[in-house]
Every structure is written in C-alpha cells, then in structure tokens.
Amino acid sequence: MKRILRKTIPSLLVLASLGQSVFAADEKKPERALDLQYGKVLFEFYQQRYYGALTDLSIGELRNNIIHHGDHPQVLKGGMLLSYGMVDEAKRIFESLLEGKVTPEVRNQAWFYLGKVYYQMRKWENAKFSFQRVDRELLEDSDSELLEEYFYLQGQTALGLEDLKAAEAFLQPLPKDSYWRAYLEYNLALNQRKAGDLDAALRRLARVSAPTPQEEDDPNEFYALRDRISLTTGVLRMEQNDYAGAMTEFRKVRINGPWSDQALFGYALAASNSGEFGLAIQSLQTLSSKQAANPIIQESHFAIGYVYEQLGQKVKALNAYANAVTQYQESLRLLETNIAELDEDRLFDSLEFGGNPELHITRLDDDNIRVDEYGRLDVRPATYSLAHLVAQEEFQRVLKELRELTLLQNTLNEWLRKVDNFDVMIDTRKIAREERIRETREKMASLDADRIRAERDALAQVIAEGEAAGDGAYFLTEDQLGYKAIIERSRRTIELMRQDPDWVEDVPEYEEKLRRMEGFLNWTVSEEFPERLWGAKQELAALDTALKEYSLRSVRINNLIAKSEQLETLEQRVDSAKPRLQELSDQVRRALTRAKTTVSDMARDELLRQRDQVNYYMTSAKLARTRLSDELLDGEGGGL
C-alpha cells in the first residue's frame, strides 16, 4: 500500500497549498502561498515533519496571520490529525467546516474526509452517508487520484456493511491499472469466500492483477500483491479439495518473498492430501531448514513426523518428532531469554528502521527514519519473532505515537535550554543597561541645562534686539565697555567743570577731546558690528547644540528606562514559561513512559504467545514420540 499512501495526504494540498478556490472566478489566482506563516506550514508538511506543521498552523491561528487561504488550512489540519489517528479532533474540524459558509471545493473535501473519519472508526452507515454527499465531478476536477481513493473507500464501506453487490459496483469506475481496484477486488473476493461462495471468490481472484509498477513505484508491492493473490487462491483451492490446483498456485509464490513460508507449508499440505508424500516431505524439510521463529516453520518440524507416519515410516517419524522436540526446546530457551531480557533498548535493537539495515537505527528521533504521508514508520523486524507484532496496526500506531512523543520531548528540552539562555541574556542586558543609564545621568548632570537655557535665552534676546536696531552697542567687548565707561565719567566731569569758575574756560577743550573719543568708539563699534553679530550667533548655536545634546540624552535615558521595563516584562514571560514548559515536559515524559511500557508489554505478550504456541507444539511432539516409541518397543513399528 506504500504507493497508495504516497498519494493520499498530498491530495489535500491540491487546494490547500494555494487556497485557490477562495478567489472569485474573475480574480487572479495565486501561484504561491500568500501568507508567510502558511508557507512555513507547507514547508514542514512537505518535510514530513507533521508535528511542526501542526504547531505552525496553530501559531498562525493564534496570531491570525493566515488569512489569504480561506478554509483550506483547516482541511489540511483535519487531514493531518486524521493521519495521527485523532479521529475525534479531525471529525470536529470537518463537521465545523460543513456547518459554516465555505466554498464548494472545501465542502466537498470536508465530506470526503469526514467519511474517511467514519471509515477509520468503522462506523459504516455514517461513512456511507458522508461519501454519498461528495460531488464526484468536483472531486474529479480537483484530483483524479483522490477520486480513485474515493471509489475504493466507498467499496470498502459497502464491504463493511456486507453489501457485496454495492461494493462490486464501485469497481467499475476504477481503472484497470489502479492499485485501488486491485486491493478492492481482492478484498471483495475474501468477502465472497467468507459468505461461502468459493467459486465466485476464485473467479474474482483470477481477475485480480497487480498493476505493473511504474518507475517511481516500489516493485516489492507489485510482487507482494501477486504472491498474496496466488497464496489465497491456493488456500481456496484446498478448501475445494482441488489439491493439484492448490499446488500449482503455491508454486507461483516467490521463494524469497514474504509469503514463501506459508506457500511452502500450503504446498506440503496439498501434496500430503493428494497422496504425494515425497513432495510434502521435500517442501517441509525446506521449510524446517530455515532458522526463524515463524510459527509455520515451528509447525513444519511436527508435520514432517506426521507425514512420515502417513508413509508408514515410523522410525523416521520417531526421529522427526525427536528432532522437533529438540527444535522446540531451543526455541523455548531463546524465547525465555528474550522475555527475561526484554527492555526498550533490546526491542528497538530488534527492529530495522528506514529500510536500510546497514544504518542500524535504534533511536526513534533519528532523521534517517523514513515515514509515509500518514506518519507511519518504515520499520521491519530484524527477527521473525517480532514479525507478527510489527504487522499489527495497533503496534504501528503506538510506535508512531512513541516517535512523535520523543520528537516533542526533544523540542521541549530544547526550549527549556533556550529559557535558561534567555535568563543569562536578560541578566547581561540588565547589567549593561543599568551601567549606560548611570553614565548618561552623570553626563546630563554635568551639563547644567537650566543655566545653559537661561544664558541661551538672554543671548537670543540681545541678538534679536541688536540686529533689529542695527546697533553694535549690543555687542561691545569688555575693552569697549570699559572705554565707554571712561567716556561717561568724562562727560560727568565736564559738567562739574562748567559749574567751577576756575575750570569753565577749559570746558570747550575737554568737550572736543570727549567728542573725538566718543566718535572713535562709535566708529569702531560700527565697523565691528557684523563680526560681533556673527560671533554672537555662533555662540547661540553652540548653546543650542548643548541643549539638543541634553535633550537627546534625556530621550535616551527614558528609552533605556522603558527598555528596562520591557526587559522586566520579558523576564516575567520567561519566568512564567519555565513552569509551563516543565509541566508540559513532565506530561510528555509520563506519556513517553506509558507508550514505552505499552510497546514493551505488546512485545512481551507476543513472545509469551509464541512461547505458549511452541509449548503446545512440543507437548504434541513429545506425545507423538512417546506413542511411537511404545509402538516400536511393542514390535509394531513399520520398516525403514
């Protein structure tokens, strides 16, 4: 079924990856994911990291940043939950989609996957109801391969309802070279046999053919299906007492295929029943020479003795039974050892992950492990004692759950480490920020902003008044101010001289000197006025720069203080995340422990079942050996 599994979930992406049906007919359809978050979801999905895809999808829903793809992300989410075996959660999603106002494409897919949910739950009537509401033409337009699965599931649902006629009707639209058709027709044959119509079952099996594998397909599926058809046909031939026909079918099964042991044993039974004991012995000896815990191989040891008895060769039969007892004792010894030493490490060491035994993968979080679109692991037993267990759907489900829990535990551990790193980072930033705040405050204190602002305002007023009056007297130097003071004192002295008869005659002379002094000052001030005005403006600009620097530092320190508050908020978030992450980690660890216990218990139960079976074989062989020994001792044994 690998080829089929490769085609199932990707069908979800026909619409989900682009969200194209969200747009009206006259709108331009997008050629890529329009939301970055949804692009991340699809990337994780295509990398077969379904936990990451579901996580990113949940984040997108929480942050409301997947808005351009309509309801298709929900279809994808429901499909992934369905692949995890979370049928109730998937069912709620699809039912919610059907209750809302959605596009015809989404509604159609929702009915299809809701039917699939009920199919997996074995609720046949509900599955039939859902599948009947799928628009076949619309589904065919969206994905023809999904349409093939649709017919297959309807046929399987009909078989679940024991409606063989309806199941047969769903074969007609399936292409002749479809694996879906081959599996449905094979299952229909089994149901016909179950209903007691062996002839109809055989006729149908004769029509079943495994499709020729394409270049991208795994040829093993083709050969395995072909072998299975031949094996089943052989079994049905035996039920009709057509032993020659059964032997012909069993011979078609590959000697190195997965059904070779069953075919060899079936061939031996058919040959024995047809009286060809030599062929039966030859087949059983080939089977018994294999070193495996296969129940059929175990049974073959006893069957050799039985066939020899039918031939009347009791001595050989006795030896065969004795050999069977020895084989069973060795098998029991190995089983007891495996049961006693069974633990998680030994169990995974007995499994081959990824289809490449050379890699010797024993960790469930190894990136080399291959999974299909449903998250099922590519795992094979390294020993036959686990073959029956690995083939069970429940074991596959628990193993898949164990892998996902392991990956989740790794993610949580990584986040716990990140939280610890955040603590160090926040502490470092807090220290650096407090130091910068201290340094900035010291520099601000040294600027004396109030004094500078007062000086600046006074200077600005002088410049404005002086420039408006065009009077250089506003910009006198210290020397010029002193010279002006001398002129004022001289003017007062001359006034006193006017009142003194002794000096009154000298007043004109001193007035002339004063006029010259005042004229020189005014001329100098007038000449230097532009330069003095420019210098004053430069000084004003310097004061403005100082005040601007003060303002910037004030803003900076406020920002630093605000960021300190942000750091405190981040610190609170990190501190609150720790217990939540730890609680989740503890929950996952407990779930991991339960899953590991379940896997180990399943393996132990399987080994115990095999031990009971081998004990039964050994008891039967011992009884047969004792019976033949007594017969031979009593002189009733046959010849060699």
UniProtKB/TrEMBL annotation:
Residues 1-24 form the signal peptide. SUPFAM superfamilies: TPR-like. Transmembrane segments: none annotated. It holds the Pfam family TPR_6. InterPro entries: TPR-like_helical_dom_sf, TPR_rpt. This is Protein containing tetratricopeptide repeats. Residues 318-345 form a coiled coil. It comes from the Bacteria. Keywords: Coiled coil, Signal. The keyword Oxidoreductase does not apply.
